[in-house]
């Protein structure tokens, strides 16, 4: 049985993996990387969404805790 907390941890690890891979690809073009890391704020709580999450889910509008709340509704 996988509970919600386990799923969140898995998503975090996956997001960080994608973030690191993406950053490696962008090392040759730091300007492009800097443009990509513009801060995006969560629709619900206003917190800055971590770049790793945006790399994994470029169209996300919420931070992970808020997105989890939405999914549970
Ligand atoms: Zn939030």
Can you tell me about this structure?
This protein is an all-alpha fold and 73 residues long. It has a domain at 39-73. The chain has helices at 4-26, 30-36, 51-56, 64-72. The protein is flat and about 40 Å long. Zinc ion (ZN) is lined by residues 42, 44-45, 47, 62-63, 65-66.
Write down the overall geometry: flat
Global mean pLDDT: 81
Cα separation of the termini: 20 Å
> What fraction strand?
under 5%
SSE order:
HHHH
Ligand identities: zinc ion
Give a quick account of the main beta sheet: strands, pairing sense, barrel closure: none
Uncertain segments: none
| Helix content class | 55-70%
> Would you tell me the structural class of the helices and strands?
mainly alpha
Number of strands: 0
Multimerization status? single chain
Number of helices: 4
Computed CA radius of gyration, to the nearest angstrom:
13 Å
Question: Summed up, what is this model?
Answer:
The protein has 73 residues and is mostly helical. The protein has four helices and no strands. It has a domain at 39-73.
Defining key terms:
binds zinc ion, about 70 residues, mainly alpha, about 0% strand
Sequence-ordered SSE layout with sheet pairings:
Blueprint: H1 4-26, H2 30-36, H3 51-56, H4 64-72
This protein binds zinc ion (ZN).
Zinc ion is lined by residues 42, 44-45, 47, 62-63, 65-66.
């Amino acid at each position: 049985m996988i509970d919600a907390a386990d799923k969140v941890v898995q998503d975090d690890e996956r997001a960080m993996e994608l973030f690191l891979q993406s950053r490696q690809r962008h090392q040759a073009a730091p300007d492009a990387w800097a443009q990509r890391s513009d801060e995006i704020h969560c629709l619900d709580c206003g917190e800055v969404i971590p770049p790793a999450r945006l790399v994994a889910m470029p169209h996300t509008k919420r931070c992970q805790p808020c997105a989890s709340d939405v999914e549970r509704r």
